[in-house]
Design a protein that fits this description.
The structure is a homodimer of 250-residue chains. A 7-stranded mixed sheet of chain A has the order 6-7-5-4-8-9-10. In chain A, strands 1-3-2 form a 3-stranded antiparallel sheet. The radius of gyration of chain A is 25 Å and the shape is globular. The first copy, chain A, is α/β, with parallel strands linked by helices. In chain A, a hairpin with a 3-residue loop joins β2 and β3. The first copy, chain A, has 9 helices and 10 strands. Chain A is 44% helix and 16% strand. Chain A has helices spanning 22-40, 48-55, 59-67, 81-92, 107-114, 151-158, 169-181, 208-232, 243-249; strands at residues 45-46, 73-74, 78-80, 98-103, 123-130, 139-140, 143-147, 162-165, 186-189, 202-205. The interface between A and B is large, with 69 and 73 residues. The first copy, chain A, binds a DNA duplex (30 and 30 nucleotides) through α1, α3 and β2.
DNA sequence: TCAACTTTGTGCACACGTTCACAAGTGCCT
DNA sequence: AGGCACTTGTGAACGTGTGCACAAAGTTGA
């Protein structure tokens, strides 16, 4: 009861996060791709309205995002495409080359290794690793598959910055632990598990199953709505089995 | 200053968005997976603390998320695993089967088609389509690859709900347009382009390149910070920019 | 030079999402 | 029965993200 008042925080001591908002960072690659495409078509200058349309966002949001990088536009004109490409690339750290290791060369790892051109400039696939002796030694996408036992040595020798986990779910956490142990601080996870990592390490997840489930949710809602409308016209019949019944059941 | 008070909105006429917040929907698949895993290990009951840890989120967030579905927990005890699995599955629409068509059976489409088991219950890959005559006719993952010319007929005949675009970027928009034209309202896009679709259609994107770039951004910032600290050790130099140092110091 | 027009960059208000803290239940033990 | 330990569900504060609307700044044309 008489717990001490938690102090209204007169001075939040907020050091003013000087960085770029996460939501903005997540959109920069989209802008970059749209800009690259424009550049290939010979476009030299683009307005926020046009670029926003190409990127599928609102123009105000685009301008605010870009304003976090600096004032790289010209009022009354727009943005110079090449210059903006450079600035975003620099901000994302694409002016240096990041060396990537793919662990797990099954169906998915195979596809990733061969995707070469799709991984745009800035990334080099430097090593492939797998636990299956039947695959080790093969050449995939121009690289030899090495045994996962050599993981630590490979990370060291090849100066790996980013690890891609494309193993079965059962092996993912162990592989991740070893990557982190070897000094990797960025991991891209394709395995359907939640990887646990120490604090400074960053993990991002790509997951087909999750995406499909989110689509299913919205698809279901759309169907339920349509059904409800259809049903509401003719007979009574409380046939609304979907979410409608759920509400009641609760 | 004499600007009229913008009216405190006594009655915001807020229709009370009856749905589940998007952020919550995006996490439900994660909870579902964690729960399934627990169930397989024979766990019957789980507290919000434990489940949150398994899903990699805070326990308060988890409880708030679950509270949007209803009151399915028991105070003092926790959640019954099986029951919660069922409730989340139902909410996500996984109690019915969604029929998926994959367009583009290159490296990636190949991998997706063979992923069979990984696409958990609720989804059936019902058709494969490709434009390359060299691939059409082959059997991949137990399904024949059909010519993309038959797309509309296949969507109709196989009752496709969800389209997966795994084509090269150049073909993606056209394929997407045709899927939508054939009545598909949910699209999962693996091609590195922003797909433009009419309003009721939902598109989600899975993009390795974007994810790598986001990782690179954070990796770069980490390196820059570390470098700044290295430099700052000899001289006094108040280079330590507040929050940056805090991150590291932690 | 000046006015009309275009487009950026941003202040502001609002909506959304996250976290804290605790009242309201539930089960267990005496 | 009653007290104790535990856990959910949620009100409220806080922080982040979005969109409007407009001043500032630039260009074009006369």
């Amino acid at each position: 009861m008489s717990t001490q008042r938690p102090a209204p925080l007169v001075r939040p001591a907020r050091p003013l996060r000087q960085g770029i908002p996460d939501a903005t960072v997540a959109r920069l690659p989209v802008y970059l791709r749209a800009l690259t495409s424009l550049a290939e078509h010979g476009v030299e200058t683009v307005s926020s309205e046009e670029l926003a349309a190409a990127a599928g966002v609102g123009s105000a949001k685009l301008r605010k995002d870009l304003s976090h990088l600096g004032s790289y536009g010209t009022r009354g004109v727009g943005y110079e495409v090449d210059y903006l490409v450079y600035q975003i690339s620099r901000e994302l750290g694409l002016t240096q080359d990041w060396r990537v290791a793919i662990v797990g060369v099954g169906n998915l790892g195979h596809a990733l290794a061969n995707y070469g051109g799709f991984v745009s400039r800035g990334f080099t696939i430097a090593a492939l690793l797998d636990a299956d002796p039947a695959i080790v030694g093969e050449t995939v996408g121009g690289l030899p598959v090495r045994p996962v036992a050599e993981l630590e040595a490979v990370v060291e020798a090849e100066d790996i910055h980013i690890g891609v986990v494309a193993t079965p779910a059962s092996a993912a956490q162990e592989v991740c632990d070893r990557l982190v142990g070897a000094g990797v601080t960025s991991v891209l996870n394709f395995a359907p598990v939640v990887l646990v990592v120490p604090d400074p390490v960053m993990v991002r997840k790509v997951d087909l199953s999750t995406e499909l489930q989110i689509l299913a949710f919205h698809e279901q809602r759309r169907m339920a709505t349509r059904l409800a409308l259809d049903v509401s016209s003719p007979a009574v019949e409380s046939a609304v089995s979907g979410s409608g019944a759920a509400e009641v059941a609760r």
